[in-house]
Design goal:
The structure holds 2 protein chains of 2 kinds.
Chain A lengths: L2 H21 L3 H25 L5 H32 L13
Helix pairs in contact in A: 1-2, 2-3
Chain B lengths: L1 H20 L5 H21 L3 H25 L15 H21 L13 H9 L4 H22 L2 E2 L2 E2 L16
Helix pairs in contact in B: 1-2, 2-3
Classes of the chains: A mainly alpha, B mainly alpha.
Chain lengths: 101, 183
């Protein structure tokens, strides 16, 4: 597969993720945008690993670190959503005007 | 040849599914569109011979997106997608930011000279990754594990009903049946 094509796909996923993370109002949809950005990153790492790094295992380790970031983001994101919903009954960013409750 | 065609197909499918995430009327459907985009990325990784990475990505995202769908049903209005949904702010600025990111990264992808060093055919990729994870890169692997442990503790502390500041329900109001009412 051509490296350019895969990198353009990764760039498209990242761009859609940027759009989603900035434009969405609900917390979980913002998280989806962030995950798409990381998906683009993982695809780019995989592409470079396969076509520019001669399959060095360190590239796969980097991708695993990116997946860890994704898991951390999702877990803490859900915990924050629960915490905010308990106190404010809010599921949208516009309803939060203060950081303290 | 077949691998190239599959790569094209999966790449285009992933981008299309990713776009549908923010165009779906139901948030549950959005979660599964996102899963479809991730499955596409995982399959591309499998085609690039990173089988372990691709399959782990698909397994992880299948679990995560199912949890996400449950969260959607729990917290969000209109999880079934019976009405059109468009909940966005700063829409134009977001489109500009997304397109700018895409164009910038595409320019780098197309114009920058990257070395041509493909995976040698017949390389034992998964075995090498395992040896790396439990060999030279063990500190990185263990750091990721400790980071996940810290995340679990943090998530429980944040989401626990009784936290440092007292009972979670103290001073809060019962959930409103009408979404506007609970503001």
């Amino acid at each position: 597969m051509s490296q350019e094509l895969l990198l353009v796909v990764a760039a498209a996923l990242f761009g859609i993720g940027v759009y989603g993370a900035l434009s969405q109002q609900t917390f979980v949809m913002i998280m989806m945008g962030l995950e798409l950005m990381i998906a683009g990153g993982i695809l780019a790492i995989g592409t470079f690993w396969a076509q520019s790094a001669a399959g060095s295992p360190k590239g796969q380790v980097l991708a695993i670190v990116a997946m860890t970031v994704m898991a951390v983001e999702a877990a803490l994101g859900f915990a924050l959503v629960i915490s905010v919903y308990r106190v404010r009954k809010a599921d949208m960013t516009e309803k939060l005007k203060r950081l303290r409750h | 040849m077949i691998v190239d065609a599959l790569g094209w197909l999966l790449g285009a499918g992933s981008v299309l599914c990713a776009w549908r995430v923010f165009r779906a009327d139901s948030m549950v459907r959005a979660a599964y569109w996102l899963l479809a985009a991730f499955v596409g990325v995982g399959m591309i990784l499998v085609l690039l011979t990173a089988q372990f990475l691709g399959l782990v990505l698909i397994l992880m995202m299948a679990g995560e997106m199912t949890i996400m769908a449950v969260f959607m049903v729990m917290f969000m209005m209109n999880p079934a997608g019976l009405n059109p949904m468009q909940m966005v702010h700063q829409h134009r600025a977001s489109i500009v930011a997304g397109v700018t990111a895409f164009i910038g990264l595409t320019a780098v992808a197309l114009l920058a000279p990257f070395p041509e060093r493909p995976v040698p055919p017949g390389a034992a990729v998964t075995r090498e990754t395992g040896m790396e994870l439990l060999g030279d890169s063990m500190v990185i692997f263990e750091t990721a594990a400790v980071a996940l442990l810290a995340t679990m503790i943090g998530a429980v502390a944040l989401a626990a009903r009784r936290g440092r500041h007292g009972d979670a329900y103290e001073g809060s109001v019962p959930p409103a049946m009408d979404p506007e009412e609970g503001a």
